[in-house]
What does this fold into?
Amino acid sequence: MKPVLVQIAPMLESVETRLGEAYEVHRLWEAEDRDALLARIGGTARGAVTNGHHGIAPAVLERLGALEIVASYGVGYDAIDIAACKARGIRVTNTPDVLNDAVAELAVGLMIALCRRIPQADAWIRAGNWPSGSLGLTGELTGAHAGILGLGRIGKDIARRLQAMKMRVSYHGRREQPFEPFTFYADLAAMARDVDWLVVVAPGTAETRGIVSRKVLEALGPEGALVNVARGSIVDEPALVELLASGALGGAALDVFADEPQVPEALLTMENVVLSPHQGSATRKTRAAMGDLVVRNLAAHFAGDPLPTPVA
Ligand code: 8YV
It folds into this structure.
């Protein structure tokens, strides 16, 4: 008999096919009556598959009495109650490293898009404006100073790419990393004051909630820009919107938001903002690698082998 899995959110089709071959998969998000499905499989589902955005709701976790493992298709596990899983002996896995390049690439792409006004340029040509005018001059990344909030695995990949763009790179995090060739700031607001770009790539935790505060955004200032490829919860979003509108903050390139998929309406009409719908890891190659890790974690668990990438 195949082990029973509950799948909480969609994944790449090829990964779903592999899961279907090895497990009896129940697709929770598609169920007409989720309550009824949970009642039916609550006593037999040994695994749950989810993603970084959906995680697993406490009310769902509670209903799955036979759960042994939650395998998440993403690196961030802020939407999974790790303590509750640990208390019940439920293993949790994520997909670190395989998405570093894709997320770093998007971070740099958003910076170039914002700075060189690529979305505006594209829209301007499409609107037939070129024969009768000029788009005007833009800023440039070369020579500018970037501050990375969270010099973890993805943060380092962003930092290296920004160095290749001939930028100066500093960072703020819980601790100094003396072997990294970037300047450490113990104080986030002090770093924000000194840099042109503040790049948020820290994990979404209780500690990082709201640390990009109004004070930090004001320190970044009218010539500064915020980039967020991590979690919306890290930034005071109402303050961000207000400061962008007043010009007290220069610009923002955002892949993540506090209440996804809702985006503050005011941002939609702002010229100094580039928006992206949480696409950091969303490439065919990276999603396939993430899916492969999910499949391998589950297979290891059910074979009684060590988990490739356990969180808990
Ligand atoms: C994805 C992410 O949005 O890895 C994460 O933490 O936020 C993203 O890679 C998601 O987990 C994939 O569905």
